[in-house]
Amino acid sequence: MEMGENQTSITEFILLGFRLGPRLQMLLFGIFSLCYAFTLLGNGAILGLIALDSRLHTPMYFFLSHLALIDIAYACNTVPQMLVNLLNPAKPISFAGCITQTFLFLTFAHTECLLLVVMSCDRYVAICHPLRYSAIMSWRVCSTLTVTSWVLGVLLALVHIVLLLPLPFCGPQTVNHFFCEIIAILKLACADTHINEMTVLAGAVSVLVGPFSSIVISYVQILYAILRIHSGQGHRKAFSTCSSHLCVVGLFGSAIVMYMAPKSSHSQDQRKILSLFYSLFNPMLNPLIYLLRNAEVKGPLRRVLGKQRSL
After folding, report:
1. Sequence-ordered list of residues with C-beta below 8 angstroms from that of 130, at least 6 positions apart, any chain
2. Secondary structure (DSSP) of the chain
3. Peptide bond preceding 172: is omega within 30 degrees of 0, i.e. cis?
4. Long-range contacts of the stretch 65-69 (C-beta < 8 A, 24+)
5. What does each C-alpha distance from 251 to 201, 222, 281, 282, 284 come to in angstroms?
6. Distance from C-alpha of 84 to C-alpha of 64, rounded to nearest angstrom
7. Handedness of CA 150, 204, 269, 177 (dihedral sign)
8. Most CB contacts within 10 A, which of 94, 226, 252, 303?
9. In this model, does residue 190 exceed pLDDT 80?
10. What is the arithmetic mean of pLDDT over 18-29?
11. In the predicted model, what is the mean pLDDT of residues 280-305?
12. DSSP letters of 220-232?
């Protein structure tokens, strides 16, 4: 489709990936394939345990099941394309496919940030107001908070896509990333992207800095409440559930570094490594953190494994 003199719109992109030698590409393919499999198995195990064990049918694990769903969706959205590119670096992705990947990635990223805030509020109510917990965190409230997180995640992603689609792309068609990350895509536009970049920054402030600040405030109050607990068992249980959530929040801090740092602070290769943390490693480590640090999850897991051995 013509756009002007000597300019035509491009219909596909080529993801450059990591630009390493063939042997290193194959090594990364093997490592990332294992990470992908572990992500699907680990988060699938959490979903299965929560569905099968009625003792886990509580608000905390309801939110955790949605976090596991997001982690699976994260991995399925970016990792298969990355594995294909490691085997065949020249294989293109269509323009529509690239925009769809960007939209889904932004949706899951925004929703996860908002869901982490909801989970911190849930822990705050459970520890600071235990007698009113059932009344405050009713199933209606939990469902409303979860649906709101998903809807806001979709709407925020749509804002970026609506601003991205009118931009002309006339070449080059090579995306210096391993998936269609929005900043890497904007660099290929043949027009002024100042509004898009400001929107990305505003989105980062609203779904990264804002939620992170809310989580910090919640956990300062939670820590104060824990220190007032006189029971040693109460201390351990509170730290067990909260430390898991804090580990997940800490791992997601790489996204703050990625989108809030000045452009000149990180090279493109460093940005790719940071992207790996929140698109591949975080979804893989989340189930491991909850399985190892949360006694309420380890109990059902032992029972399931015990049944399998007896069979």
Report:
1. none
2. -EEETTEE--SEEEE-TT---HHHHHHHHHHHHHHHHHHHHHHHHHHHHHHH-GGG-SHHHHHHHHHHHHHHHHHHHHHHHHHHHHH-TT--EEHHHHHHHHHHHHHHHHHHHHHHHHHHHHHHHHHHSGGGHHHHT-HHHHHHHHHHHHHHHHHHHHHHHHHHTTS---S--EESSSS--HHHHHTT-SS--HHHHHHHHHHHIIIIIHHHHHHHHHHHHHHHHHHT---HHHHHHHHHHHHHHHHHHHHTHHHHHHHHS-GGGS-HHHHHHHHHIIIIIHHHHHHHHHHHH-HHHHHHHHHHHHHHHH-
3. yes
4. 66/115, 66/146, 66/149, 67/112, 67/115, 67/116, 67/119, 67/248, 67/286, 68/43, 68/44, 68/286, 68/287, 69/43
5. 20, 20, 9, 6, 11
6. 30
7. positive
8. 252
9. yes
10. 86
11. 69
12. HHHHHHHHT---H
Written as one letter, the residue type at 46 is: I
Structure token digits, residue 37: 């499999």
In order of 71, 86, 110, 141, 154, the CA distances from 151 in angstroms are 17, 34, 10, 15, 5
pLDDT band at 304 (very low <50, low <70, confident <90, very high): low
pLDDT of residue 3: 43
pLDDT tens digits along 135-152: 999 999 999 999 999 999
Token digits for 200?
């990305």
